[in-house]
Amino acid sequence: MDSAEKQDIGNLAASIDYFTNSLYQAVATGTNENVFMSPFSVATVLSMVYLGARQNSAKQFENVLKITSNPDSVALAFKEYFSLLKNSDKLVTFNSVNRLYASEKFPISEDYKNNMVKYFFSDIENVEMFLEGCSQKKFVGWRDMVMWKALQKNGFN
């Protein structure tokens, strides 16, 4: 790994560390509340969305994640980091399974889909989000999400 790749991963680690602390502070506001989550997965998914964000949306992701690099550099840093983890000591297991879902009405470019696979070892899928004709919109995409998650055995899928 060259020095530029090490720097990219270092910047990514600093960003995730800052985001982790901010996220825990934001969600653990009550005195008797328990929180269980993976800030790494949240940061990964937000970075996946950041790769496709433009203009003001991209600026908002940069602010939340404290990113100083452009979306392509962040995506490349994730790819390098995942590759480093995958090829590290076999006594250590790291699984990270993340996927994006978008409304079936939202078009997703093939280029973006390819970048999800290339950089994040993941993908994005259009799903039916809400039942039509209900007085209350009912989220139904969770069925697809639960089935997909149940089929995953290891990370980097």
UniProtKB/TrEMBL annotation:
GO terms for molecular function: serine-type endopeptidase inhibitor activity. Residues 17-129 form the Serpin domain. This is Serpin B12-like. Pfam families: Serpin. One of its GO terms (cellular component) is extracellular space. InterPro entries: Serpin_dom, Serpin_fam, Serpin_sf, Serpin_sf_1. It comes from Octopus sinensis (East Asian common octopus). It comes from the Eukaryota. Belongs to the serpin family.
